[in-house]
TrEMBL record:
<feature type="binding site">
    <location>
        <position position="270"/>
    </location>
    <ligand>
        <name>Zn(2+) 1</name>
    </ligand>
</feature>
<dbReference type="Pfam" id="PF02126">
    <property type="entry name" value="PTE"/>
</dbReference>
<dbReference type="GO" id="GO:0008270">
    <property type="term" value="F:zinc ion binding"/>
</dbReference>
<dbReference type="GO" id="GO:0016787">
    <property type="term" value="F:hydrolase activity"/>
</dbReference>
<dbReference type="InterPro" id="IPR032466">
    <property type="entry name" value="Metal_Hydrolase"/>
</dbReference>
<feature type="binding site">
    <location>
        <position position="184"/>
    </location>
    <ligand>
        <name>Zn(2+) 2</name>
    </ligand>
</feature>
<keyword id="KW-0479">Metal-binding</keyword>
<comment type="similarity">
    <text>Belongs to the metallo-dependent hydrolases superfamily. Phosphotriesterase family.</text>
</comment>
<feature type="binding site">
    <location>
        <position position="28"/>
    </location>
    <ligand>
        <name>Zn(2+) 1</name>
    </ligand>
</feature>
<feature type="modified residue" description="N6-carboxylysine">
    <location>
        <position position="151"/>
    </location>
</feature>
<dbReference type="InterPro" id="IPR001559">
    <property type="entry name" value="Phosphotriesterase"/>
</dbReference>
<feature type="binding site">
    <location>
        <position position="212"/>
    </location>
    <ligand>
        <name>Zn(2+) 2</name>
    </ligand>
</feature>
<feature type="binding site" description="via carbamate group">
    <location>
        <position position="151"/>
    </location>
    <ligand>
        <name>Zn(2+) 2</name>
    </ligand>
</feature>
<feature type="binding site">
    <location>
        <position position="26"/>
    </location>
    <ligand>
        <name>Zn(2+) 1</name>
    </ligand>
</feature>
<protein>
    <recommendedName>
        <fullName>Phosphotriesterase</fullName>
    </recommendedName>
</protein>
<feature type="binding site" description="via carbamate group">
    <location>
        <position position="151"/>
    </location>
    <ligand>
        <name>Zn(2+) 1</name>
    </ligand>
</feature>
<keyword id="KW-0378">Hydrolase</keyword>
Length: 321
């Protein structure tokens, strides 16, 4: 059940939890052409009109809220996010935090800033204002708007090395602001390590959203183990056929539901420019979840009450303060 008093911080302000509607909790609406694009050209999303048209597709099918999962200093375009929300009416939740280190230049501040400085930066974006810069120098140009989520990420080395300081800063910011953390896992690895780290730093499982555990079909038993910890599972290997089929994704979701985890599942698409119809003629589009995948779940016997939980209620609860 939703708390009618709870709110979620969007880029335009606080929105009551029960007014968020259908939520895509992990998308990429804009991503500046920089280091991430050098790693993977499909990540660039820098055309306002093309993104606006994609969002319009999703809104046509009832989507009212989208989380932009790109954090400060790694290509996030806070100005375009704010403009899109103002002009389209979509609720957008912006992220502070950090991404995988491969997405930053070698001389980027993310490699050297202290945990204390990073904590202060994250807390500032959550409680005061966003920054429009940070790809090169330490962020300095503020704009109106606040972050509603802390993005974290690790590669195959897990929470060790430089990531230890980054995760420490994220945990401190989450504790100070009661803000949820959405954490990238590399092909589903190290999820339990991340959860244990955050619990040690007094961030409870219900404040954590763990991403991408559904990348590999063979991860199912591990995913069930992670779900038992009480975290939210953000599943987004939908329409991503280089990993597995949508039929396999449906089977994984059915297994999670069968084990009683209906209150912990979130669904999204984790979009790239290759998959959006208005960018490179992609074959999916931001409405794929509603138009194609949810009908598959319904055909497999998933009822509307469960559909509402995994597309509306769970994400709203995960994001709310």
């Amino acid at each position: 059940m939703m708390n009618l008093e709870a709110t979620v911080t969007t880029i335009l302000g606080e929105v009551q939890q029960h007014k968020l509607g259908i939520i895509h909790p992990h998308e990429h609406l804009f991503l500046k052409n920089g280091v991430p694009a050098q790693v993977d050209a499909s990540l660039v999303l820098d055309d306002y009109e093309k993104t606006r048209k994609e969002v319009a597709l999703a809104m046509t099918h009832g989507v009212q809220t989208i989380v932009d999962a790109q954090p400060i200093g790694a290509g996030r375009d806070a100005l375009l996010l704010r403009r899109l929300s103002e002009e389209s009416g979509i609720h957008i939740v912006a992220c502070t935090g950090f991404h995988k280190l491969v997405f930053y230049a070698q001389n980027h501040w993310i490699h050297t800033a202290s945990s204390e400085a990073l904590t202060e930066l994250f807390v500032t974006e959550i409680t005061k204002h966003l920054y429009r810069d940070g790809e090169d120098d330490w962020p300095s140009t503020a704009i109106t708007g606040k972050a509603g989520l802390i993005k974290t990420a690790a590669d195959m080395q897990g929470v060790g090395g430089r990531y230890f300081s980054l995760f420490t800063a994220a945990a401190a910011a989450a504790k100070l602001t009661n803000t949820a953390i959405m954490s990238h896992t590399e092909m589903g690895y190290h999820a339990l390590e991340q959860i244990a780290f955050y619990e040690k730093h007094e961030v409870p499982p219900e404040q954590l959203i763990i991403c991408h555990l559904d990348r590999k079909v063979e991860n199912l038993d591990y995913m069930l183990h992670v779900a038992e910890s009480g975290v939210y599972l953000e599943l987004d290997t939908i329409g991503r056929f280089r990993y597995h089929s949508d039929e396999d994704e449906v089977k994984m979701i059915l297994k999670l539901l069968d084990k009683g985890h209906e209150d912990r599942i979130l669904l999204s698409l984790d979009t790239t420019n290759k998959r959006m119809r208005h960018y490179n003629g992609g074959d999916l589009g931001l409405d794929y979840l509603q138009v194609t995948f949810l009908p598959m779940l319904r055909k497999a016997g998933v009822g509307e009450n469960i559909i509402r939980k995994i597309t509306i209620a769970n994400a709203a609860r995960a994001l709310a303060k």
